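ARCHIVE CARD
Drawer: 12
Card no.: 0347
Subject: one protein chain, sequence and derived structure
Cross-reference: see card 0346
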Amino acid sequence: MPTDPALPQGRAAHDVLGELRALRAKDAPTRGGRTFAYVYDPGLDGLDELAAEAYAAYASVNGLDMTVFPSVARLENDLVAAAVSLLGTPGAQGSFTSGGTESILLAVKTARDHARAVRGVTAPRLVLPSTAHAAFHKAAAYLGLETVVVPVDARTFRADAAATAAAVTEQTALVVASAPSYAHGVVDPVPEIAAAAAERGVLCHVDACIGGWLLPYLRRAGRQVPDFDLSVPGVTSLSVDLHKYGYSDKGASVVLYRDAGLRRHQYFAHAGWPGYPVVNPTVQGSKPAGLLAQAWAVQRHIGEDGYTALAERIAVSMDRLLTGLRAMDGVRVLGDPEASLVAFTPTGADGAPDASRMLHLADEMRERGWYLQPQLSFDGLPPNLHLTLTPATQGRVDALLGDLRTSLDAARAREPVTADPGLVRLAADLDPDALGSDEIAAVLAFAGLDGKDDGGGAVGLPRRMAPVLALLDALPRRLKERLLIEFVGSVFRV
């Protein structure tokens, strides 16, 4: 029996675009300063239109081969040169990538291959603080490195330089620091960590995906900023996302290396087949030159003074937000944020973090039109709500604080949300890899992740997430990861 075609009959362009706009209207807003994660809104009139036109000019260009499209080399060299000028040292080189995850993956690949070639390392290890971005664990899983996770200081949330140094062995290929860490917005002690790595002949990568295009401009705006970039002795590579505080559209990042010899380990070349000789600087072969063009155009449009002014707007918002949070009863700011990220947690009468109230608070704020990102507990670090500030949030801070006070009262009035103790005890004895599809489906249904919408929620999610997150927070890590994989698989299916 023939089946219905996957594609409908062709439709008019305005109908297709109308459907896209209707779908997009159901998402969180990316402009206006009410979504405090995932988006980076400069609040500049006309910038979206400029980026769209620049992308369109290069939408059909394949960034794979610069001998056919030589302008892509010019655009990439300009972007990398700007990053080197801001963050580098004489002789530094780099590549344009699709985002922070690819930049990190390439830096880990480079370190692994360098350790093999130069030091004869056969079982490479990656030493990183517990607050390092999950992309490093992804890179290690893809590339076959063992991760050595070092706990951070429980008060400052910064990496422990002495403990990091002690974790370095002859098999260490790379040591990691963050500027700042995503989870808490604090800058690790990069000079001490890089020096410890250099003493052992080990490379050191600084994840500046968040701070790379912001911290230098905060410094130019008169703010105190710790040393973190390639000018620090011992730092050998650095990642910086242009789609964050460079304000390009998503899919734009740069990875930098101290010199071209180190960057060479990033490249892949193959001439052992009958087709064209292949050389790929990055993971992608064919890649969209439109993202490269719009990143270039946005940088040229905003310029040095523009980025400095935008950084100052963020700094003013940070001052106002932190003052308001620290004056609020029952709220604790985690660490001493140094860039644009803030993590805070509600506390109980004893001053200890109140996970139940935190989860309710996230739901209450979403009901009032704000998205604050919940972060679960880990290795003794408290669960919290995470905010990413942008220039567009400058005029929203007072309204945010007002709704936060109201939401705190509403969260306190709700019954505490906790995971079922019996299920938590049962989960402790489960082998995630041995669970069958029916068993996984039953656990997902219990957790509220069975794809059913309880009214007004996103695809496959209930409207209020507090019960779901409370259960996830209580489950063992490997089971939690298995459930998340199965849930996402249930969302992306036909």
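Annotation on reverse: The chain has a mean pLDDT of 92. Residues 289-326 form the longest helix (38 residues).
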